[in-house]
Amino acid sequence: MATGDGARGLRGDDTEIVTGDARRAQDHARRAEAAEGAPQDVARYVSAVGAAGAAERARLRALFAALPVGVVLVDARAADLPIVFANAAFSALTGYPIPAALGRNCRFLQGPDTAPVAVATLRRAIAGGTGCTVTLRNYRHDGTPFWNELTLAPLHDAAGHVIAYVGVQVDVTAHVEADRQQALQAAVLDATAEGIYGLDHAGRCTFINPAAATLLGYTPAEVLGRDMHALVHHHHRDGTPYLPDACPIHQAAAGGQGVRVADEVIWRRDGTAVPVAYAVQPMAGAGFAGAVVTLVDVRERERAEQERAALLARERTARAEAEAAVAQRDHLLALAAHDLRTPLAALIGEVQLRQRRLQRGRPLSAEEQGPFLATLHDLLHRQVAVVSEVTDAAYVRMGEQLALRVEAVDLGALAHEVADLLAHAHGAGAAAIDVAAPAGVVIVGDRDRLVRVLQNIIGNAVKYSPASAPVQASVRAEEGGAVVVVRDAGVGIPTGEIDRVFTPFYRASTARGFAGTGLGLAGARAIVAQHGGTIALESAPGVGTTVTITLPGGEGAARGS
Ligand SMILES: Cc1cc2nc3c(=O)[nH]c(=O)nc-3n(C[C@H](O)[C@H](O)[C@H](O)COP(=O)(O)O)c2cc1C
Questions:
Q1: Where are the alpha helices (DSSP H) in 243-402?
Q2: CATH class of the structural domain 8-171
Q3: 91-136 pLDDT, tens per residue?
Q4: 315-393 CATH pick, 1.10.287, 1.10.472, 3.40.50, 1.10.10
Q5: Residue from 105, 134, 151 whose mutation best tests the ligand 1 pocket (most atoms within 8 A of CB)
Q6: Residue 150 Cβ < 6 Å to ligand 1
Q7: What is the bridge-based pairing of β-strands 471-478 and 162-171?
Q8: Engineering a disulfide at 111: which of 139, 221, 313, 544 sits with its beta carbon 3.0 to 4.6 angstroms away?
Q9: Which mutation among 150, 165, 166 tests ligand 1's pocket best, with the greatest number of atoms within 8 A of CB?
C-alpha cells in the first residue's frame, strides 16, 4: 500500500499497522472534534499518527489482534477492496484461517440469505467514503450461517483521501434470534383469542395480552405490576370472598402446581363477573417463580348449555304430554269400545231371542215389541252420542271447526229434557236435578251438540255429587243471549287443576274412581266456543262446582222472559 502521503500503509502480511503517539493522537482528535463539532473517526486518528514509531505500531497491531471482536482492514486503493489485515477473532468467527482471507473482498462471507438491501447499504457507504453499521446474514467456512453486525469506518490520509477501511464484525446471532423469538411470542400473544397473562411469585402481573386486557376491561398499563388476585379474582361467583391462599392461580405462581379450572368467575373493571375457564402453568427458573394464566370467556358456552337444558326440558315435557295424550286416547278408545260393545252384546242377545221366536212362528206381540224398540232407540241414541263425542274431540284436537247444524233451540225445554234423561239414566240412587228454566229462552244453535253440552255439564254435576245434594240447573235469558248455570255440591276440583279440566283427556285428581273419558268438558267448551259463547268453571274441593255457560242468541232468536 502506498504511504507517500504521510499516512503509514496497512499491510496484509499483518506486520505493518500505522500507529503513533497516542497522546498526540488524542489531542489531535479532541482538537479536530472541537473544530468540526463531529465525533472523531479512526481515519483522522490514523492520519494524525502517521509519524508514529514502530513501538506504537506494534502496540496497536497487538491491540487489534487481541480484540475479542472480528477486525479487518481492507485496502481502499487496491482493486476490489482486498483484506490486508484480519485478526484472530475474525478467523474464529468466520472459520477462515487468516491467510485464506487475505487478499479477498469480504463478500465471500455472503450467501443465499444475505439481504441485498444490507449489501446495498454497504456499497453506498463505501462509494460515499463514509462509515455505516448493518446487521446481515453471513456464512462461516463450514457453511453455517450467523448474524454479523458489521461496522465500517474509512481511514483517511492527511489529504483526506480514503486509503483504507476498518471493518468490525460482531456475532449477534443470539440477539437476533432472541429478538425474533420475542417478536414471535409477542405476535402470538397479540393474535390469540385466549386471554393470557403472566404473574411473578407474588401474583403481580408481568405481562398481559390484548385479549386478556379486553376481557378484564383494563388497559395493559393499568394491570402491569398489580396483584391480579386482588384486582380480578377477589370474590367467588356467589359473592363470598375468595382468599388468596385458596386460589389455585396464586398458589401456582408461588411455586405450586398447574391446574385447570372450568367454572369460576373473574371480575371486570366495571364490577361485572364473567364466567371463565382457566389454566395456570407455573414457571420456575433459577431465581424466579411465577405462572402463566390462560383465560377463556365461557359466557357463550354457558348460555348455550342453558339453552340446551331448556330445550331438553321442553322436549321432555312435550314428550310426556304426547305420551299422556296417547295413553289417554288409548284409555278413551278402550272406554268407547266398552261403552259401545257392552250394550250391543246385550242387544244381539235380545235380537237373537226375537229371531228364534219368529222362526218358531211365535213373533212378539205389538205390546211386547214396544219397550224393546224404546230401549233399542235409547241405546242407539247413546251410541251415536258416544261416537259423536269422540268424532268432535278428534276434530277439535286436529284444530278443525265443527260443522254446526243450526236451528232455533229452546234452551229451557232442552234443560228439562236433558235432566229427565239423566235422572232416568242415573236412577234413584243419584243426586236429584232441580231445573229452573222458563220456557221460551230460545237461541240459534246446533241442538244435538247443545244437548251434549248440557248432558256433560249436568251429568258431571250428578256424577260427582252425593245423592243427598241435589244439582241446581238454571237457564235464563240475558241481553243478547242466554245463560245456563249448573251448580253442584260435589267433590269439586283443586284450584290448580281448574284450567286444565278443559284439556282433552285431562281428568281432575278428584275424578278418580268415577267413569269418564276426559273429553266431556273439552268437547263442551269447543261446542260453546263455536256458538260464540263462553264456559267458565268455579270450584273448590269439598265445596262443589259451578259451571256458567253463556250463549249468544243468534240471528232471529226469540227470547223468553
Ligand atoms: C472493511 C470492510 C469489511 C467488510 N466486512 C464484511 C463482512 O464481514 N461481511 C460482509 O458480508 N461484507 C463485508 N464487507 C462488504 C463487502 O466487502 C462489500 O463491500 C459489499 O458486499 C458490497 O460490495 P459488492 O456489491 O461489490 O459486493 C466489508 C467491506 C469492508 C470495506
A1: 248-253, 299-359, 366-397
A2: alpha beta
A3: 999 999 999 999 999 999 999 999 999 999 999 999 999 999 999 9
A4: 1.10.287
A5: 105
A6: yes
A7: unpaired
A8: 139
A9: 150
